[in-house]
Amino acid sequence: MPFPFQKSNTDSIESDRFNIALGYVTLKVLQPWVECDKHIKIALYGAEDINDSLNIPEPIKIILRLQAIDRLKENLKALIEDTNFLMNKNDKLLYKTFMLKMERYDEALEKMPLFKNEIDMITHKEKIVINEKQFTKCLNYLREIKKEIGKPLHRANLIFKTDEFDFDALKKKIINGG
């Protein structure tokens, strides 16, 4: 049974490989890109949908926001790692810079966490409190990285096709591993 991204009646092995490359770009570039947007919304509001954010209890919303920013970070790391070999030569150094930025992000979180546990004065139960100032800084930092990653992905024709796009060159690049 062919993959959903595979054309039917494919005669050549190279066409099959290119169809697999299209699937790779779909799964490793486009899907994480869309998930990043989803995680940004959840990190901001506790839910992707407005109605959902109104119905989620605050303690759960806090956990969802923290999980979303962590998943955003992991998606960005995966996006960088999974697309590095497809980038133009001029963008290789830029990708090393992205990985350094992600390392700096992790180091900053070790020094100043996004949340702390406090005891509620009324219920005397432990609760999680987000450091909103730090959380906002971190979220903006990750959003900036996402914005910057889009440029080399575009130059590599992985997001939008440009007029000078050469499908044969992309096919050879993917088949030959970079």
Describe the overall structure.
The chain has helices at residues 13-45, 50-55, 58-83, 92-111, 132-155, 167-175, and strands spanning 115-119, 126-130. The protein has a two-stranded antiparallel ribbon. The chain has one domain (13-171). 66% of the residues lie in helices and 6% in strands. The chain is built from six helices and two strands; from the N terminus they run H-H-H-H-E-E-H-H. The model is unreliable at 1-14 (pLDDT under 50). It is elongated and about 65 Å long. It has 178 residues and is mainly alpha-helical. A hairpin with a 6-residue loop joins strand 1 and strand 2 (126-130).
Give short descriptive properties of this protein.
two-stranded antiparallel ribbon, disordered N terminus, 6 helices, 2 strands, 178 residues, elongated, mainly alpha, 6% strand
> Helicity range of the residues?
55-70%
Query: Averaged pLDDT, please?
Result: 83
Beta-strand content estimate = 5-15%
Strand tally, please?
2
Strand ordering within the main sheet: 1-2
| SSE string | HHHHEEHH
Number of helices: 6
How far the N terminus sits from the C terminus, by CA atoms, comes to 28 Å
User: Roughly how many Å is the radius of gyration?
Assistant: 20 Å
Number of domains: 1
Subunit arrangement of the protein: single chain
SSE class: mainly alpha
Instruction: Enumerate the spans where pLDDT stays under 50 for 5 or more consecutive residues.
Output: 1-14
Please summarize the sheet with the most strands. 2 strands, antiparallel
* Outline type: elongated
